[in-house]
# Entry
Amino acid sequence: MSEEYCTTGDVPKPPVAEGPPYAECVLCQKPTEYPESHKGITLCPVCEWQEAQRAACSG
# Structure
C-alpha cells in the first residue's frame, strides 16, 4: 500500500540578496534575506516557516 502526501511542488524562491538593502517582510516588516528590488511577496525566515506550518498537511 502506498501513501500519498500533500506537496507544494517546486515553488520558485526569490534570489537571496548579496547585501543590503533587503526587502521587508510583508507580514512583520522585518528585513528578509531577499533583495529590495525583488518583485512579489517576501517573507522573513520566521514568517516563511510559520506559513509553511499553516500550509502543511495535517496527516
